[in-house]
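Sanity check. The docking grid for protoporphyrin IX containing FE depends on where the pocket ends up, so I'm generating a full predicted complex first rather than guessing from homology. Inputs follow.
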Amino acid sequence: MMLQKWIATLLLAFAVGTISWLPSTSWAAGTTTDQQVMSGFSPEVQSQNTLAPQVFNSNADNTRRWVMFALAVPLLVLLLITGGLGISMGLYGKDLFLPHLIFAGLSITLAIAHAIVGIVWFRPHL
Ligand code: HEM
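Predicted complex below; grid placement will be based on this.
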């Protein structure tokens, strides 16, 4: 029984890992090089960004990044706690469903807030 749970967990980790390594469509089309991807992060290219020029390379932008980071650190902690509680339940049979549920709820709330603020600030024309 315990072995089955470990195998299921390993398979899940393998599946998530495999999916996250799948190439994106632009890679599949063979049109994008590593250098082209990285050049998008250079200050020159970012200052020419026509989608949201006012967002890049300003003091306001740095404040926004700090706010995003301040939202993201507790989010990461909540996600790790939620995962830890889930693993304790799934692998070790602990009775932790309610705490797992509460931490999952807090995590998703903060993740949605962080994502909405991020899209509004960093992708205003999306
Ligand atoms: C459920 C998890 C998360 C979701 C759905 C999420 C979503 C997003 C989205 C949609 C943006 C806007 C990105 C853009 O359009 O440029 C963003 C930005 C950002 N996120 Fe997250 N995020 C998550 C977790 C985290 C974590 C764990 C960290 C770090 C501890 C983090 C740090 C940041 C930072 C620093 C930015 C600002 C990036 C920039 O300067 O453009 N996020 N996030």
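Relevant for the grid: The helical segments are 2-21, 25-28, 34-39, 43-47, 59-92, 97-122.
Also worth noting: The first helix runs from residue 2 to 21.
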